Amino acid sequence: MPGRSGTSPIWTEMPFFRDMIADYGSAAADFAAPAGMATPLGRYAKPEEIAGQIAFLLSRASGPMTGAAMVVDGGYSL
């Protein structure tokens, strides 16, 4: 189960992550730092944004889509 910062124990138990928390001041800031560097959007997608994409795909509005891939990666693959 994700922690309050959106991270899971797989991250929070890692020594490098703990060191980064000390550098950035909080787990949330630490988790946001790589996203700011890794994506043109400057952040990771929020769960509700991904849910919106799923809702679209499940709706009639996506009916005309065939054989398309929706890339939701914050511009990483541009």
Polypeptide structure, described:
- This protein is mainly α and 78 residues long.
- Helix content is 49%, strand content 0%.
- Helix 2 packs across helix 3 (27-38).
- The longest helix is centred in the middle third of the chain and has 12 residues, at 27-38.
- The radius of gyration is 16 Å and the shape is elongated.
- It starts with 8 loop residues before the first helix and ends in a 20-residue tail after the last helix.
- The model is unreliable at 1-5 (pLDDT under 50).
Which key phrases capture this entry?
single chain; 78 residues; mainly alpha; 4 helices; elongated; disordered N terminus
Question: What's the short story on this structure?
Answer:
With 78 residues, this protein is mostly helical.
Topology:
Layout: H1 9-12, H2 15-24, H3 27-38, H4 47-58
Helix pairs in contact: 2-3
State the distance separating the first and last CA atoms: 31 Å
- What can be said about the biggest beta sheet? none
- Whole-number mean pLDDT: 78
The rounded Rg comes to 16 Å
Order of helices and strands: HHHH
**Beta-strand residue percentage:** under 5%
Inertia-based shape = elongated
Helix content: 40-55%
Number of individual domains: 1
Annotation, overall tally of beta strands: 0
Q: How many alpha or pi helices? A: 4
- The structure class reads mainly alpha
Q: Stretches where pLDDT falls below 50 for ≥5 residues?
A: 1-5
